[in-house]
Amino acid sequence: MQERIRNLCRRIISAYGTRAQADKCCEEMAELATALYHFRDGKATMQEVITEIADVLFTATQMAIIFGEDDVTKEMERKMLRMEMKLDSNDKQR
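Predicted structure:
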């Protein structure tokens, strides 16, 4: 993560608290889900979806800081490995 983003996220967590930011993250994820459904149905623009993605990434970064960036990174690596193995297996079956 970029240091500027990390520093701002830490300031936000310090100012508003972990519970409020966890609630905010849930809210932003729900708004992204809604925007994606609306985009699929022609009721939202690409820019609206992009805005919601940015909000989710920003609040998810805060959650990574709260819950432990190293642990989150390790879990992402584990999930990427599993997905790569699955894709490799699918490629062999074709």
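Summary: Residues 69-93 form the longest helix (25 residues).
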